[in-house]
Amino acid sequence: MINGGSLMELLQLKYFQVAAKIQNFSQAAEKLNISQPSLSMTISHLEDELNVKLFDRKGRNIELNKVGLAFLDRVNRVFCELESAKNEIMDITGKQSNHISLVTTNPRLLSGVLKRYLMLHSNVVINQRCEIYKTAERQLQSGEIDFCLTVPAIKGANIECKILKENEVVLVVPNSHRFSGRQSIRLNEVAEDPFITLVHNYSFRAITDSICQSAGFSPRIAFEVDDILMEEMLELERGIALLPLYLIKRPHLGTRNLSMLKIEELDTRISIGLSWLKSKYLSQSSRCFRDYLIENYNNYLL
From which residue to which does the signal peptide run (predicted)? Predict the structure, then answer.
């Protein structure tokens, strides 16, 4: 046992968990509301007790080494179990939490369906944020959040995943484009056209880059934009784009002045998945939300 008893042990583990997440002692200490020397000393004591180094020091920054990564995985499980125990006790005693935490790689994956759910369950509070794919996966694995809604779906041995929708990536062109009257296209026919793409921190960008490479070319990028600006650039006729149908064609919003062409030579299907940790206890509110998404998602995204 680490010196100081079980309370101190949990405190040390929490300090380690936060430092591992931020990978900077000064910033981690600020988040924990303690001094930087106190945090450094706590981590040093923990390393002494384990007789290993958990971090590689790189100037003011720190980086988990191989041992630290393995230890972090176990520490995350400890706190996930504690949180699960708390949630289960609240359910048993009739004091269920009405808070649900959710991370998505694109907020439009929740368009329509989240609004409808909250209209039906006005007492529920959903803490939703948007993260890049790797961050979403890490937060799910650590037990920080209840659910991830992502493209592609997050899967793993310790993760439950339900594919909510198989969506298709299509070529989107302005109605003034020379191919706008067609239903489908071989993608190499537009290899010389200017493309509008999402910036690189979007996980979907890697998918569209791969599609173009499979068609035998690298896209000529005219604009890199946020997904909110994508449709505006298309409507301004500044280029064409590869986009999933869920970003363009949503039944509850109607249609737009854009043409969508199926790509003939490639399988461009992608999976929208809802994922949760097998070992994490989900409150009654969380289970209700999960079941609603599984049963009703198709009503909102094509």
Answer: none
